[in-house]
Amino acid sequence: MGSAHAQSHHSLKNILSLVKDAETGQRGFIITGETVYLEPYKGAIATLNQQLEDLEQLTADNPQRQARLPQVRDRIDAKLSELEETIALRQNSGFEAAQQVVLSDRGKQEMDALQNVIGAMIQHERGLLQILSRRSKQTYQIALVSGAISGLSALAALAALILLLRRHLDARDSAAAVIAEQASQLRATLASIGDGVITTDAAGRITNLNAIAELLTGWKNNEAIGKPLDVVFQIVNEDTRQPVTNPAIRALEKGVIVGLANHTLLIARDGTARPIDDSAAPIRRQVNEVVGCVLVFRDVSARRQVEKQLQESEARFRQIADAMPQMVWVTRPDGYHEYYNQRWYNYIGCTPADCLGYGWNAPLHPDDQQLAVDRWSHSLRTGEDYEIEYRFRSKNGEYRWFLGRALPVRDEAGEIVKWFGTCTDIEEAKQLEADRQKFVWLANNSADFIGMFDLAGVPFYANPAALSKVGLDSLEAACQINISALFFPEDQDRIVNEFLPSVLAQGSGTTEVRFRHLKTGAAIWMVYKVTTLTDTSGQTVGLATISQDVTEQRQLETNLRQLAADLSEADHRKDEFLATLAHELRNPLAPIRNGLQVMRLAADDGRAVEQARAMMERQLVQMVRLVDDLLDVSRISQGKINLRRDRVELASIIDQAVETSHPVIESAQQDLTVTLPPQPVYLYADQARLAQVFSNLMNNASKYSEPGERITLTAQQQGSEVVISVQDTGVGISAEMLPNIFSLFTQVDQSIERSQGGLGIGLTLVQRLVELHGGSVEASSPGLGQGSEFTVRLPTTAEPLPPQPEPLADKSSTAIARRILIVDDNRDSALSLSLLFELTGDETHTVHDGLAAVQAAATFRPDVGCLTSACRSSTAMK
User: The whole model's pTM is what?
Assistant: First the structure.
């Protein structure tokens, strides 16, 4: 029975130990996140059920003990449930979630409840064991007495009794020998112990001192035996030197183990004082019988000295740590934070009670917490140095960047005994890095040339725009050249030997210079702005440039200068044109005026009058041609000309043009040859305007050719185009004149005699009209005196002929008189037009401004209105 109670007692202790093992595994996993720490947890759970089943069997004969087992199971289930929940939280939600459960003390409460239940059962088992022990002794005594009585009453049993007594004596002698041997072993053990050991009897008198106790007290064992303990073992308070209650006395009185308070001195027989640690325990014969006391103590002078040195070292460490600009922290090997310097508390705003332990990551930015925990767990698991950048929240709620670092401190065996860490504020460095990154981003995305080079002229930075502008493929390639290679040879001396030295002297400078594209050799005009680069001591270490490409601006300036020159030239040609126009308009006026005089003086001479009339008509036609050309140029320039396009045959266009130019060519006694394709060529064009084009070209060829020379017009079909060439053997065109031959007011020979009444706008009309038809015209000439050729290219069409309109019936025989309103501010023009219409039988009414025209229209009721342009734009239109 006693064996079953002992086994139950042992089984209960095992169960409690297994639950503690499970909790240890859980805590290790929560801190590190490593599943290897769950092995003790899993092993404990696997063994617990078997231990509980064994306990049920051992307590099966005792209903009272069986009644307690459900409580044990409930408490174990509650504790395991708490462990399982925190493990799941650590796996699924991270360290913070699991930590909150741990810090809630729920786990501690469950463990305390379990310990109380098991402790009560263990105490119950101990009580049962004591009861069984007493019963066993009583049974033994009763058996002895009964045996003696039976022996006296039966002489037959005397021999047996004697035999039993002899055996008892033999057993007693054997026990005495064992006891003597054990006593010898005990004395040897006490003598070999490094601590002082003193034993006393129940009255507190010394029964033994070992060698260390003799050395520390100054008393020999034979001298001390029998003396009161206070005489030999004198102890006082280290600070007050007042006597201290001897722990052995309390152990004898209370029957419990008692330890000394700190700062206790042992006063030896010779007066020597030594700091000691000690403890006293009662010596029991029976369960409640105290027969003596054993006192164990040791000299802690060396330890006190080490502790003092450690305290001094720790004080110096704390002074140094508090003076450091970083936050300093120290942890145990498992990551438990046991120290922070004052800078930590000042920044975080917490107390040691809040911060020490495992809650170090609470002030971290939420985005940084998991990364920090993972890296710290990795370092704890592997022993590798810890380094991370994270953000801590200050007591004011501000987050700042810190560089966290930690190194393991190892003992002589290489085992980690502590971790020493710091948190360095890098907020400004982060901001500088952000500013630098912003500058790099801006520089890399800038269209300006941005670069830096050392004092030897070797680049160490160039943005992509700079590399592109000078034809470099990479920054590495840029670092292999000298900046002098970026300039043309004729500019290198000015830049390298004059401009850059002035920048070094003045700190900055600006100039314009051509950069050279290293692949194509093209010139890039740059506004070259250079400034010095200095180190922290103010020493110049290099130069930087932010330069703008002004090539287009330079080109615009060149274009503007060319435009100004062109405008000046155009203005000059305009003046010449106006002089020519005045001359050309004045030339017909003199013959017309003379003709009028002839007609007035020779009114009866019909032949003279007819000659004068014919001459006046020729001059008037010349003036009308000049004015029509001017109007056509104006309409084309303003986009007001409308082409009346239709499908026409090229031959009919050429015939119309030849018919128009024939009188001019014939009067100059020149030879015209026309060659057309044998098959019809169709164009989608305005026949009258194209006839005007070729007529102008033939007139131009005639004008600049001597009498009797040859003019040739040829046409050829080339794919979807027809090419028409007008060639002459006249004065030709110089190479300088060819680019401007189609410009307005341009004439090859501007002498009045050579112009033959032209204004220099015929070729401009030719070019504009051809381009309106989707074609092109170009001029060529071998040179002066070698003739010229004008080539026109026009697109052809294969569309079918549209239906021809019915010819209008001749209604002249049925014409009736019309009422015509003539509006012209030129009275002579209005009068002449009125006379002309009246000669044809029409009725006319003449007015000279817009308002009068509106009034006349209401009363005269005209069939036709004839208005001049001046009147159309006057008050009548308002």
Answer: 0.36
